[in-house]
Design brief:
CATH topology: Purple Acid Phosphatase, chain A, domain 2
CATH superfamily: Metallo-dependent phosphatases
Helix content: 25-40%
CATH architecture: 4-Layer Sandwich
Order of helices and strands: EHEHEHHHHEEHEHEEEEE
Oligomer: single chain
Structural class: alpha/beta
Largest sheet: 6 strands, mixed
Shape: globular
Number of helices: 8
């Protein structure tokens, strides 16, 4: 087990910011944790998926499943049922980045089949992504956990990647610190210009600085005692 964690917020296709942020990662003693939402929207989702896969397989990184990975899995497995929701949430950008620009079809079944044919590794990679990662007193998960339950570990798979209310607006009476993305920090701060990380004071830390919306991609370093370093790459 490494001495520290280097946690990266929601990337959403921002490959340039992602690569720049990684120059701050100390591979030797920091476990890399990607909080989920690699693609959909942004500069180049394809490159983000490819880099994340490389980091997981070659560098031992942990990449969590986000709601956008969940939507892409559903689209690839059942495009007829799930295409509308996926497209509405930025999936069109991912599809265009994966398929040749001359691919003119707008048939969802054909698009999903083409992606699976050209990228046979993509669906297995997405399905392999864990929902949580526990380290020392921390729990890393994409959206959060259900703090209205008697035991947060009973959180549903859906809520690990989708929850908002029921998590960030609830008191954390557990002995865990939850590090999450999904809900952009300007919303948590109640200030649309504040893209810094958000800390609740009771063990909830939001690190999605809305990079794809002109905000900040965060890399936050933790040791067993708390937050020890913080790197940020602005979307200029």
């Amino acid at each position: 087990m490494k001495e520290k964690i280097f946690a990266v917020g929601d990337i959403h296709g921002q490959i340039t910011q992602f690569e720049e942020l990684l120059t701050n990662w100390n591979e030797e003693n920091e476990q890399l944790v990607l909080i989920g939402d690699l693609g959909d929207r942004g500069e180049n989702p394809k490159a983000c998926f490819e880099l994340a896969k490389e980091l997981v397989e070659d560098k031992g990184a942990i990449c969590l499943r986000g709601n956008h990975e969940d939507m892409l899995i559903n689209f690839l497995k059942n495009p007829f049922r799930h295409a509308a929701l996926y497209m509405m949430n930025g999936g069109t950008v991912t599809i265009k980045s994966l398929l040749d620009t001359h691919h003119q079809s707008d048939d969802s079944t054909e698009l999903a089949a083409s992606i699976q044919s050209q990228y046979p590794w993509l669906l297995p990679f997405l399905e392999s992504l864990p929902l949580t990662y526990e380290w020392e007193g921390y729990v890393f998960t994409h959206a959060g956990v259900d703090l209205t339950l008697n035991d947060w570990m009973d959180t549903s798979d859906h809520d690990y990647v989708w929850i908002r209310e029921g998590f960030y607006d609830q008191a954390n009476t557990t002995d865990k610190t939850f590090v999450f993305g999904h809900t952009v920090t300007p919303m948590l701060h109640g200030n649309q210009t504040n893209t810094d990380i958000w800390q609740s004071g009771d063990g909830k830390i939001g690190i999605d600085g809305g990079a794809v919306y002109g905000g900040t991609l965060h890399g936050v370093v933790f040791d067993k005692n708390g937050l020890v370093n913080h790197y940020q790459v602005e979307n200029n």
